[in-house]
Amino acid sequence: MLTPITLRGRLVCLEPMTMDHVDDLCSAALEDRSTYDYTNVPQGREETKRYIEGALTSFDKGRTLPFVVRHIETDRIVGTTRYLDLEVFSWPPPWPPGVASGPSPADATPPTVAEIGSTWYAASVQRTGVNTECKLLMLAHAFDSWNAIRVTLKTDARNMRSRSAIQRLGAAFEGIRRAHVPASDGGVRDTAYYSIVADEWPAVRTNLLERLQRGMKRPTE
Q1: Are the C-beta atoms of residues 101 and 88 closer than 8 Å to each other?
Q2: Which of 22, 40, 120, 158 reaches 20 to 30 Å from 185, CA-CA?
Q3: What Pfam families does the database record attribute to this sequence (predicted)?
Q4: Is 41:145 a contact under the CB 8 Å cutoff?
Q5: Is the link from the previous residue into 103 a cis peptide, with omega within 30 of 0?
């Protein structure tokens, strides 16, 4: 299990998710739900409580590292995101070189590959710099601190808004996994897969920094 971390930028602070965030996260999800058609976003306090309980159970098993997103200027919780599908490569040994590998992610054996996902934001911060900085902070930690070799991003293939946002990060489209998982609307989801590998990270980082420095407003995500 990885130790919870806090990632802070200029616009947002990514804080470890706890049960204390139920009310704030519930409020964020209730602002305007019109963009959540293909996204699993809890509605109401009880759903939000179960949502956080599920995330923390997965964290306890070493599978995820969930955050809430705090908007620094307003000091409000405005969404959530997480690392998931954390995997430590054990072959060829040792991986990474000079570090003993183990069966599950830990601070001494950071993830070799990871995914960034389960991301959603309150309507008031969508199409602002919030998502750009969240991704910059998380990608930087994955590639620069963990020395990960790959980060995956994926979304419902029908979610063109999310797909466009991922593409603007500089992630490479890999294809569609058909009939992949249950969809948030009750059907069966085809999933669009994207990735960034370590060699691509410098260019992606430059792109994200330039977007933040230009102070893009709407549309920016």
Answers
A1: yes
A2: 22
A3: Acetyltransf_3
A4: no
A5: no
DSSP 141: I
Query: What is the token pair recorded at 114?
Result: 């990871």
Is residue 66 a contact partner of residue 77, using CB atoms and an 8 Å limit?
A: no
Give me the domains of the chain, ranges plus CATH numbers: 7-213 (3.40.630.30)
Among candidate residues 1, 62, 56, 50, the one with its CA nearest the CA of residue 26: 50
